[in-house]
Amino acid sequence: MVVNNDANLLTKTQTAKSVIKKSGFSKLVVENIALSFGGKQVLKNVGLELLPGQVGLLTGENGSGKTTLLNVLSGFLKPEAGQAHLIKEGKTIDILKEESDGLPLLGIARLWQDIRLFHTMTALENVLTAAPSIGINPFRAIFQPIKVRQQEKILIKKALNWLDIMGMKERSGSSGDKLSLGQAKRVAIARLLQTGAEVLLLDEPLAGLDQAASLQLVNDLGILAQETGKALLIVEHNQHSIIPIADYKYELVNGVINTTELRNRDDVA
Amino acid sequence: MNYLMHLMVYFEIFAIVALSLNLMLGYGGLLQIAHAGYYGIGAYSATLLWVHFGFGFIPGLILAGVCAGFLSLLVSLPARRFKGDYFVMVSIAVQALIYAVLYNWTSVTNGPFGISGIPKPEVLGVEFSSTGAVTLLYGFIALIFIGVISLLKTSPFGRALQAIRDDELAAKSVGIPVNKLKMQVFAIASALVGCAGGLYAAYVSYIDPTSFNLNESILMLSMVVIGGVGNIRGPLLGAFILITLPEALRFVALPDAIAANIRLLIYGVLLIILMLVRPQGLAGNYRYQ
């Protein structure tokens, strides 16, 4: 019911079309990425693939280049060689050519290891910052305040929905700096979801969580991937926690990825 | 009474100045030190348009805002990646440049002698020549600007700026076009302060470069910081205090010989105490501590 209402309102404000985009991507392909820092080759020949609903576990020792690869895929670092494409709706997006602030709306968003919530905002406002909104244009904000407000209502509904899915709806009014670590991570993931991105890059989402919270979060991420068709690439030291939900294990060793397929993932755990 | 209304006009002008600076500082997190420069650009463009080109009061005022906003784009395009300390350095340079141009381009600005005989505000054929009338007119204009600024503040635009101020990297990672928004807020703030400059010129009817130097910029910054960043009432309170405080100190009976210095001393000590006791500003949001 709620979804239908949204769709009706959205057609009225047609400009918000991008908001209702269904998870339309078909493949993430990364090939031959190479990158070195000051002569040290961190990534030599890195490649991986992810399909909708799949979970990839990216693992490796400290300094093996996991976060570097995430920085490349989220546009914060440009590699020396290689390709990365997101194929969606028949179009191919060249990830390496895009700016970091353009990628989330094109389909790839990342979670920071240190979370980085906006600390002067509430959880709900944090999630709302991620929505592609017409009111981000100051002239529309001044001259079409009613239109902007209408769209805002829809975006708030959507944000509350994501917060609900991450189990944080009750804390939507809490200030970003008053949340516990685990709660902050969940809000940050809701914020990623609000961007509409189909591929989520999660940098150590379990770091600092206790056993119970880890289990719960892994479980929720698994359900999220299955039900929304989002693809997750999860960087994690503690690989045994992620393996139960992962389709692939990508292990970075000396700048090269060893891929292990975990088809019968439930058995592996 | 006239004296009080005179102060009121100054407060109305500086309310716009402080609020526009707050857009940059309190929302965009951009420490702007050239605000008086853009204020001066607005004052001089409006003056030239009125005196030499016969523009009406309102069209001249709007064009003055456009000029100041356009100039900010000229600054922000080459400095597209401006960040933190570098932006501060750039803005100090811009302030120095604008002052130098106003002071030395004598064929246009009349240099240190300034321009006099600026016509009084006139709207729809009504001339606002008395201080009381100007108080009303400027109060009305200031209210419009406050309305525009609150619309911006509560819009997704304002929220995105707040996100950039909190954490620029995180803002990028959720798809906020950081550089574009910084340019936009810079241009809007400059345009608003440019209009304020025009209002000032029309009220005092004489301008010279000293009203638009680095000291003025610092005074404007003090208004925002003392009042408190990140909301509307903070900068308003700051502007009110910094306009009335020096005036109030006039009435403290002091020996003539040292009066001026003592006033400066009291003023300085008050500022230091304030910053120690309430670092977030008098009416700043508690959350920003």
Throw out a few tags for this protein:
heterodimer, A: 269 residues, alpha/beta, Rossmann fold, six-stranded mixed sheet, four-stranded antiparallel sheet, 36% helix, disordered N terminus, B: 289 residues, two-stranded antiparallel sheet
Molecular structure report:
The complex is a heterodimer of chains A (269) and B (289). Chain A is α/β, with parallel strands linked by helices and 269 residues long. Chain A has a single domain, classed as P-loop containing nucleotide triphosphate hydrolases (Rossmann fold, 3-Layer(aba) Sandwich), CATH 3.40.50. Chain A contains ten helices and ten strands. In chain A, the strands form two sheets. In chain A, strands 6-7-8-3-9-10 form a six-stranded mixed sheet, sandwiched between helices. In chain A, strand 4 and strand 5 (91-94) form a beta hairpin. Chain A is globular and about 55 Å long. Chain B is mainly α and 289 residues long. Chain B has one domain (2-213). Helices cover 73% and strands 3% of the residues of chain B. Chain B contains twelve helices and four strands. Chain B has helices at 2-27, 35-51, 57-76, 84-104, 106-109, 131-154, 156-166, 168-173, 178-204, 214-227, 233-250, 256-277; strands spanning 115-116, 122-123, 126-127, 206-207. In chain B, the strands form two sheets. Chain B has a two-stranded antiparallel sheet with strand order 1-4. In chain B, strands 2-3 form a two-stranded antiparallel ribbon. In chain B, helix 1 packs across helix 11 and helix 7 (156-166) crosses helix 9. The longest helix of chain B is centred in the middle third of the chain and has 27 residues, at 178-204. The mean pLDDT of chain B is 85. Classes of the chains: A alpha/beta (269), B mainly alpha (289).
